[in-house]
Amino acid sequence: KVWKYLIKNPLASSKQIAKAVGCTTHYAASLKKKTGTPKEVFEKEQKLATRIELLTEAASLTSGDRQKDYGNPVDNMRHIAQIFNAITGHNIKTSEVPVFHMATKLARMQTSPNKRDHYIDIMAYAGITYECEKE
Prior knowledge:
The protein has helices spanning 2-8, 14-21, 25-33, 39-45, 51-63, 65-70, 73-88, 96-111, 116-134. The protein is mostly helical. Helix 7 crosses helix 9 and helix 8 packs antiparallel against helix 9. It is elongated.
């Protein structure tokens, strides 16, 4: 588990690793020492994404493969709202569905604030919310 976590989070501290995988800090530190790559190399390789890169990725996700897989995003949100309303008896608007998805991403950011996917998805859901309101 430690190695798997380190692959995804090469700059994580021993304390962060221990908390994430449920081991002792000492054990995480001992395995971390066995990596042959210095921390500076990982820091240099880790490129912080710009806002434009994230927005571009969000746009391509909602207009590319995901649209092929799930159809038009507004239609998909409308369908989710209909299902939710049938189950709960509430009257959720289509434009509120992507806001709920953003809330999920915001909650997940509490656990993994450096995960790029959260930010990309929030950007995509914001755009879908706007499209839903326009319709």
